[in-house]
Write a structure and sequence with these properties.
about 0% strand, mainly alpha
């Protein structure tokens, strides 16, 4: 089903399109947060392997 055109009356809009309109354009988790967690896990594995 195609998206509703801009400036369409709210009554004429598709309900699923209205739900999508409330979502933020920002991602849920920052890319840098994911990269940082992966690096932190890598450092933890390195330290653990050095201790064994």
């Amino acid at each position: 089903m195609p998206a509703d055109p801009q400036d369409t009356d709210p009554v004429d809009q598709n309900p699923s399109e209205r739900e999508l309109g409330r979502r933020s354009a920002a991602p849920a988790v920052s890319l840098w947060l994911v990269v940082g967690v992966i690096l932190l896990i890598g450092v933890g594995v390195y330290v653990l392997s050095a201790m064994l």
